[in-house]
Design goal:
Largest sheet: 4 strands, antiparallel
CATH class of one domain: Mainly Beta
CATH architecture of one domain: Beta Barrel
Number of helices: 1
Shape: globular
Number of strands: 34
Distance between the termini: 53 Å
Length: 384
């Protein structure tokens, strides 16, 4: 084995170690108690909140009073069978990806390898894909629906495009390694990353490849498309800014550790959280660093823009409000702790009407005021 291949295998093992520490576990006979739990984010749609719970259910509730819109939809796990006669049946389906919602349907995928379409008003199952079997690999990223199709990536190394109404397969695109990235759609182009270290741009009509850009590390984060540029973080510690037309590099920024969380943009500044515990504020035009915010704990949860500030959560459970005030002479960076939930946070944040919603690793949903940091309410999603 060549020295380069040996180093590559060591790096891959380190990547998987981080993933296991972060909570994505791979069921097997070495630890029969290690059941993936998931970290689904929340979607706000038509006065309702939708998310996947850590006991494998799709939850829909009224945003104003937290009443269930319909009984939680339980997704049945498939039985896990290992070698040497080792078998197990996990207690629940882990849901890592955040659901996506259209006017009529909620789409949600499970780690066990199925994508579901559920009626947003009644909770009735519309369709499931694959019909009889499962994806050949687990599903980590969430689905995205756009212009009559729903897109989902799988650890079986394929990106699938399905008819949003029927669940029929429209096309699929094969990469060279696992896909954990949630896709992004901008116009007629679909962007997603793979563990093969590449960011792909595909034609949404037929799945044909428009371009690809190769980094030096696996890509698990969700691409951000903004003003003619696609931003993507990689396990090689770089945040890349690429031209949407041809994938050419505009600039790249090196952090102290990997990028997992999807960045957010406000007023010409991109805010990118890293596993190194910092959020970097960079100029969108050239990647120059304006400021960095040290949260003291890895940032896995994707931040959100709310009321002119960036709301971000650290893995250890602290929630911060970040902003950069500009004047004619300089920019001033402000970092304020909003809350300390004292529970691990991996799920992406979402905000609306002055409230940020946070799904903790204890399967508790928090509603926190984006100005005062007061917890308006909290709700355990655990089955009684």
């Amino acid at each position: 084995m060549s020295f380069r291949r040996l180093i590559g295998k060591i790096l891959l093992l380190l990547v998987m170690l981080l993933v296991l520490i972060s909570g994505v576990t791979i069921p097997g006979c070495t630890d029969l108690q290690a059941v993936p739990r998931g970290w689904s984010g929340v979607v706000i749609a038509d006065g309702a909140l939708f998310l996947g719970s850590m006991d494998g259910k799709l939850v829909a509730m009224d945003k104003s009073n937290q009443d269930r819109l319909w009984p939680d939809v339980l997704f049945e796990p498939k039985k896990q069978t290992g070698g040497f006669g080792c078998a197990r049946s996990p207690e629940a389906v882990a849901i890592y990806g955040t659901p996506t919602v259209t006017e009529e349907l909620v789409y949600i995928a499970g780690y066990h390898g199925k994508l579901y379409a559920v009626n947003a008003k009644t909770g009735a199952l519309r369709w499931v894909y694959p019909r009889e079997d499962y994806f050949a690999g687990p599903v980590i990223g969430g689905p995205v629906a756009s212009q009559g199709k729903v897109y989902i990536g799988s650890a079986d190394e394929r990106l699938y495009a399905l008819d949003a109404a029927t669940g029929d397969l429209a096309w699929e695109f094969e990469t060279e390694d696992k896909i954990w990235s949630t896709p992004s759609v901008d116009g007629d182009t679909l962007y997603f990353g793979s563990f093969d270290k590449k960011l792909y741009a595909l034609n949404t009509a037929d799945g044909s490849k428009r371009w690809q850009f190769e980094t030096k590390g696996a890509i698990a984060s969700t691409p951000l498309v903004y003003d003619g540029t696609v931003y993507i973080g990689s396990f090689d510690r770089y945040l890349y800014a690429l031209d949407v037309s041809d994938g050419s590099l505009k600039w790249k920024f090196l952090a102290e550790n990997w990028f997992w969380a999807r960045p957010v943009v406000d007023s010409g500044v991109i805010y990118a959280g890293s596993v190194d515990g910092k959020v970097y504020a960079l100029k969108t035009e050239n990647g120059d660093k304006i400021a960095e915010f040290d949260l003291g704990s890895p940032v896995i949860s994707s931040p959100v823009l709310a009321d002119g500030a960036i709301i971000v959560a650290s893995e250890e459970g602290k929630v911060y409000s970040l902003d950069i005030t500009s004047n004619q002479e300089s920019r001033t960076a402000n970092q304020r702790q909003l809350a300390n939930l004292e529970e691990k946070i991996h799920a992406p944040l979402v905000a609306g009407n002055g409230v940020v919603y946070i799904h903790s690793d204890e399967d508790i949903l928090y509603a926190v005021d984006t100005k005062s940091g007061v917890t308006l309410w909290s709700l355990s999603l655990k089955s009684e």
